[in-house]
Amino acid sequence: MALAVGMRVLTRALLRPWARGLRVAPGRTGPAAGGGDGMRCFGSPRVLVEPDPAAGVAVVKMRNPPVNSLSLEFLTELLISLEKLENDKTFHGIILTSDCPGIFSAGLDLTEMCGRKPEHYVEYWKAVQETWLRFYLSNLVVIAAINGVSPAGGCLLSLTCDYRVLANNPKYTIGLNETLLGIVAPFWFKDTMVNTIGHRATERALQLGLLFPPAEALRVGVVDQVVPEDQVQSTARSVMAQWLAIPDHARQLTKTLMRKPTADRLLTERDADIQTFVRFICRDSVQKSLHAYLEKLKQKKG
Ligand SMILES: CCC/C=C/C(=O)SCCNC(=O)CCNC(=O)[C@H](O)C(C)(C)COP(=O)([O-])OP(=O)([O-])OC[C@H]1O[C@@H](n2cnc3c(N)ncnc32)[C@H](O)[C@@H]1OP(=O)([O-])[O-]
Fold first, then answer.
1. How many domains are there within the chain?
2. Do residues 254 and 112 make contact, with C-beta atoms less than 8 angstroms apart?
3. Using CA atoms, how far apart are residues 265 and 143, in angstroms rounded to an integer?
4. Domain residue limits at 122
5. Residue 19 covered by a domain
6. Where is it found, in Gene Ontology cellular component terms (predicted)?
7. Is there a domain that residue 28 lies in?
């Protein structure tokens, strides 16, 4: 059922103007990571997929430098890679990680939400919704190997996964920090966090825009495991092996049972959610806050 809903929404997404013309193109070539049966890496400019067919697993590496901000093009490429893996019966699990040193993802691309026309905000928000729905409802086991900082939309992306392994580096904070930018995490960002860490912890984390360092993230439950930086990928692989040992149909149905009510809320309020976002982001006060925040990021350098 969830798969059918998912396929319908993705098909709709792929027919949209922002997705047209983008197809998975051959990427960097080389032997599959650990696979050894000749299957090659593939992907697209911003997403590298390293298949390990023997294990039934693919490592999906985000590579949208400098900070893996979730631009329209990047989201589209992520969705296409996910669809390709879901449609290939070889794969049962994905490890989602970053190819940008020290950054998992800086979250939604602020330049997509600043100084653009309302029509652009509509297209962008559809892509953000689609990405959340597709990853949240994926029938594959999805494990986040979080090897860098992960604010806002970056945190949300990891929360769609079934399990999160975070590298133990005090710089690698994670959380929904939207309020610090003068913006508000939508209800489905909030719901995803509530489902992960509970209502009270979410209330505090979202109002204060908390970015948790690893020990704190583990204590509150934003991540499931914190390991030394050089063990993030190997830990994700052993966790994946445990999850893949469970009969797939039983695991998938249980995942659907747990997640469908949350996803259904967005599916039934999708258009209203787009309108709310566009109204909100078009406000002068919000645009000023976002411009000021971007300016602060740029000045930090100089
Ligand atoms: C309702 C909506 C809900 C919203 C949800 C969200 O996700 S909102 C998002 C909430 N996200 C955040 O609050 C995270 C904001 N970002 C950060 O805190 C830091 O960039 C960092 C800690 C991720 C990396 O630190 P670092 O010292 O390694 O790197 P650096 O800081 O030097 O940046 C390098 C370049 O990247 C640029 N750029 C950065 N982020 C974004 C972005 N999201 N987008 C676009 N661009 C971004 C930055 O301007 C700079 O550009 P320049 O000058 O080269 O043209």
1. 1
2. no
3. 24
4. 42-300
5. no
6. mitochondrial matrix
7. no
Q: Report the alpha-carbon distance of residue 16 to residue 9 in Å, rounded.
A: 11
Which residues, 6 or more positions from 296, have their beta carbon under 8 angstroms from its beta carbon? none
Could you tell me if residue 213 is inside a domain?
yes
- Residue 285 one-letter amino acid: S
Name the active-site residue from 93, 148, 153, 175. 153
pLDDT tens digit string along 96-128? 999 999 999 999 999 999 999 999 999 999 999
Catalytic residue among 64, 68, 147, 177: 177
Ligand 1 site: residues with CB under 6 angstroms? Answer: 66-67, 69, 103, 106-111, 149, 151-153, 177-178, 181, 183, 185-186, 294, 297-298, 300-301
SS3 86: helix
Average pLDDT, the chain: 90
Could you tell me if the ipTM is greater than 0.90?
yes
C-alpha closest to that of 35 among 91, 82, 96, 88: 91
Residues 6+ apart with CB under 8 A from 219: none
Q: Which residues lie across from 47 on neighbouring strands?
A: 44, 62
Q: How far apart are alpha carbons 164 and 74 in whole angstroms?
A: 21
CATH of the domain at 256: 3.90.226.10
In a domain, 3, yes or no: no
d(C-alpha 266, C-alpha 257), whole Å:
16
